[in-house]
Design a protein that fits this description.
alpha+beta, Alpha-Beta Plaits, RNA recognition motif 2-domain-containing protein, Fungal_Mei2-like_RRM3, Mei2-like_Rrm_C, 5 helices, globular, RBD_domain_sf, single chain, RNA-binding, disordered N terminus
Length: about 160
Amino acid sequence: MNSDDRTAKATSQNSNTFDVTRVINRLDRRTTFMIKNIPNKYDQAMLMEWVDATHKGTYDFLYLRIDFKNKCNVGYAFINFIDPESVIYFAQARQGKLWNRFNSEKICELAYAKIQGKASLIKKFQNSCVMEQEVAFRPKIFYSSGDRQGEEEVKYQNTV
């Protein structure tokens, strides 16, 4: 591999730009994404319903970023899929499509998240101030495999 090839490979792996053909061709195996352009009226339950309509059981982490002052989302969420194949189907079904509520003109976009993987996401958020907020605003964690795949793994007690 020459230096240009190494640079191109490093650039593509460090880039947040999502290209489904790279996943299809097994050139990119990342599974954690930022879902962008979410209409601000969506709450986490609506987002889960939207994802589950076509992809229930294919992800193990979901977090819709909320502005705690106005209790509206800020337009993006993080999702971790259990495998790269699930990424392909989700992208084909959702990327570039209009959102199905609130007559929004926003188009769903995907980008790779900087933090990759369920364990890394849990570590990032476990001591975050979001864990002191209402349960509805906290990340959702699901079983990744087995008979309970897709079921909520962590149930929070409301402490606020």
